[in-house]
Write a structure and sequence with these properties.
By secondary structure, the chain is an alpha+beta fold. It contains six helices and five strands. Helices cover about 45% and strands about 20% of the residues. The longest helix is centred in the first third of the chain and has 23 residues.
């Protein structure tokens, strides 16, 4: 598969013979589009540099759609491969290491979380593939994002807030010093008691 293409496989629930319900299919694709747009915003520092074409759509064993990322403006840099790579790398890091890329802010994390919310309840499985790399979403992905976002919302910092939020890279340093040997839950409980 070309490096500017993203294959999205969605497996429906067993009671539906693993066929995806139409509403769930549309909701998932809308959530993926939102997440890709947020990653694109991070890559370009605020803009939207790529759009997506559906270049393949099938249902041989699972519902699958292949998107091709295309530069919005042919005269500017082609970020299509970078956006897709960052999307997959971000999901992989959050799942495997429970950390997000430094430039993933609250909006990116929220958009990624929306993709995984239905996994396990409305759909059985979702898999992203690009350039020889496949990333299945785990049921614990949304919880990993909640843990990252939870710290962002609860931790106090003396740094000025940009747009009302700390960047995760700034937050990691603040949280690391604040937590010490405590678990995130213990630390957050102490903060709530102080407030």
């Amino acid at each position: 598969m070309s490096s500017n293409r993203l294959k999205i496989q969605i497996v429906g629930r067993p009671e539906d013979n693993e066929d995806v319900r139409f509403d769930d299919f549309l909701n998932q694709l809308t959530a993926v589009k939102k997440a890709l747009t947020e990653v694109d915003r991070v890559v370009t520092n605020g803009g939207e540099s790529v759009y997506y074409r559906v270049v393949d759509l099938n249902h041989s064993s699972t519902a699958a759609v292949v998107l091709e990322a295309v530069p919005v403006n042919q005269q500017e840099a082609d970020n299509s491969e970078i956006v897709l790579e960052k999307f997959l790398t971000g999901i992989s890091l959050i799942q495997a290491q429970k950390v997000a890329p430094d430039d993933f802010d609250y909006n990116v994390l929220q958009a990624l979380k929306q993709i995984t919310t239905p996994v396990g309840s409305k759909i059985a499985e979702m898999i992203f593939s690009s350039n020889g790399t496949s990333v299945p979403l785990s049921n614990g992905f949304a919880q990993s994002i909640d843990n990252l976002i939870g710290l962002e919302v609860e931790v106090k910092s003396s740094k000025p807030l940009e747009g009302g939020l700390l960047k995760l890279s700034e937050l990691r340093g603040v949280a690391k010093g604040a937590l010490g040997n405590k678990s995130t839950e213990e630390y957050l409980a102490e903060l709530r008691d102080e407030w």
